[in-house]
Amino acid sequence: MTLDRSIRIAPSILSADFADFGREIRAIEAQGADWVHVDVMDGHFVPNLTFGPPAVKAFRKHVRTVMDVHLMIAPVDPYIDAYAEAGADILTAHLEAGPHIHRTLQAIRGAGMKAGVALNPGTPAESVAHLLELADLVCVMTVNPGFGGQKFLDMTGKVRALRRMIGDRPIHIEIDGGVDPVTAPLVAAAGADVLVAGSAVFRGGSVDNPAPYGDNIRAIRTAAEGARAAA
Ligand code: DX5
Ligand code: ZN
Fold first, then answer.
1. Is the CB of residue 11 less than 8 Å from the CB of residue 37?
2. Nearest atom in ligand 1 to 149's CA
3. For the chain: N or C, fewer Cβ within 10 A?
4. What structural domains does the chain harbor?
5. Which of 72, 137, 150, 180 to mutate to test the pocket of ligand 1 (most atoms within 8 A of CB)?
6. CA angle 56–66–144, rounded 5-degree value
7. What is the pLDDT of residue 1?
8. Does the annotation list 112 as a binding residue?
9. Are the C-beta atoms of 109 and 91 separated by less than 8 Å?
10. pLDDT (average), residues 63-87
11. pLDDT tens digits, residue range 200-210?
């Protein structure tokens, strides 16, 4: 079966109210989120620290769509089973997180999850050439990972190269960092289908006033779909 490449918006709860994750997750899903993106940071692979498996397991109870867990940690392998147990649907590891990404992707699938591989801005598309049979998603970072709200780095050339390499394989191309209604069209036209957005989804809203989340999600989706249609 061919992969459904329609545009998916994956709000990052890194921009949510950290005291109210359950309601925030329910609010973004009610407002049209396709996936829920969970950023796990270890203060070592990236200079910021977020949450571990017990927190992710608690989020799971509120996620009705797809829980997309982005690991910015090193090492990865000792924690794969914990994130499977926490209920991740997709587990993405960074290619730069260790010498054995091939083994890591095998282990993620072996634990029953879909496997993603993320590329830092400095890592070329070609680095996944020998991993495509093991990956369900390639995440192209359009910021240096670690923080929300950073300026978008133009990686459209890398996205185009990946789209060509992937061909008919059932692999999503996800973009993470600085996605908003201005930058989404660039990556959508280049071949991306999953758009992570933190600050551009949560700005202007709250759990008590969630309508702006919906407006923000629709604005990103409309801009991306328009560019896709014109490409
Ligand atoms: C950055 C994270 C992103 C982040 C995106 O390291 O991986 O998912 O939350 O935030 P924005 O959309 O604000 O750039
Ligand atoms: Zn992320």
1. yes
2. 13
3. N
4. 8-230 (3.20.20.70)
5. 150
6. 65
7. 66
8. no
9. no
10. 98
11. 999 999 999 99
Ligand 1 mutation pick, 196, 201, 216, 220, max ligand atoms within 8 A of CB: 196
Contacts of 180 (CB under 8 A, 6+ apart): 152, 197, 199, 200, 220
For residue range 113-171, list pLDDT tens digits in order. 999 999 999 999 999 999 999 999 999 999 999 999 999 999 999 999 999 999 999 99
- pLDDT of residue 37 exceeding 90, the answer is yes
Q: Is 6 annotated as belonging to a binding site?
A: no
Q: What are the residue numbers of the active site?
A: 39, 176
Cα–Cα distance for residue pair 49/42, rounded to 1 Å: 5
Q: How far apart are CA 140 and CA 124, in angstroms?
A: 10
